[in-house]
Amino acid sequence: MKISLRQLEVFAAVASHAQVTRAAQAVAMSQAAASMALADLEGQLGTPLFNRQGRQWQLTDSGREILPLAREVLDRVGDIEAVAQTRGAAFDIHLGASVTIGNHLLPELIVDLNRRYPASHIQVSRHNTEQVVARLLTFQIDLGFIEGPVNDPHIACFPWRRDELQVFAAPDHPLVDRQVSVEDLRSVGWVCRESGSGTREHFDRAMAESSIAPRIVLELEQPEAVRQCVRLGLGLGCLSLLELRDAFQAGWLVPLATPFLNLSRQLRIALHAQKHRTRGIQAVLDLCQSET
């Protein structure tokens, strides 16, 4: 059996993109050549790797089992090339981060990485926690920085930093400058992050622990949109303090004291449990460990 790296590259790309057209573009091949490489690989292995459902290609059980092995081969080849070309002083890595982390914590980390490994190529994608995990599962990203817990056995998580959510309002909101009660939070409207975000998951959990069923009037994907809607009086909000400090200092948003809510949370680093720890991954993990 002679499996080629090109065949494994096409297989991994199709698994990431769930279709041949985009996968072929990602590996700089024609669609016909990519389809032929994948067909040759399946022929050599004697098993289909995908179920074809129209234009969408879903991994078979064999495909799901083989994918992490194929990714490891490709990652190790990348390490070999990095050592040969740069003596280990550079690497390629694709990071995924939830929105708050990507906006406020990851830039400092990337700058530090760039200073230590100036020849490296670091790519960052911002998504909510649920989307970051989905991309880790299909090996579209190497490492994820997330705000919420993960219960998938295929994902390994490491504690990184602590964070605090904060309930807030417009300066002229009736709850400002008074003691806020549980009943107050039941009766007001809320502007929240969308389902699937780590912020929303922790907000929902904190509310449930205090027996509060919040009346959500609007869900938004971007923290800045939440801040602006709260500023305009649409309701209360609850975001990370990282997203709110500048608005509190400027006075156009006001924190509300809610000591009865557990709004402290753990930020985590996540990766596929079967992901080969490339030189880039290990460099990021080492740097994050030194930070903590």
Give the class-level CATH name of the largest domain: Alpha Beta
Helical proportion? 40-55%
- Oligomeric description of these chains: single chain
The CATH topology of the largest domain turns out to be: D-Maltodextrin-Binding Protein, domain 2
CATH superfamily annotation of the largest domain: Periplasmic binding protein-like II
Shape: elongated
Largest sheet: 9 strands, mixed
**Overall tally of structural domains:** 3
What would you say the CATH architecture of the largest domain is? 3-Layer(aba) Sandwich
Q: Specify the number of helices.
A: 12
Radius of gyration: 23 Å
Helix-strand string: HHHEEHEHHEHEEHEHEHEHEEH
The tally of beta strands, per DSSP, is 11
Portion in beta strands: 15-25%
Mean pLDDT: 90
Contiguous low-pLDDT stretches (5 residues minimum) are none
- Summing up helix and strand content along with how strands pair, one would put the structural category as alpha/beta
Termini separation comes to: 47 Å
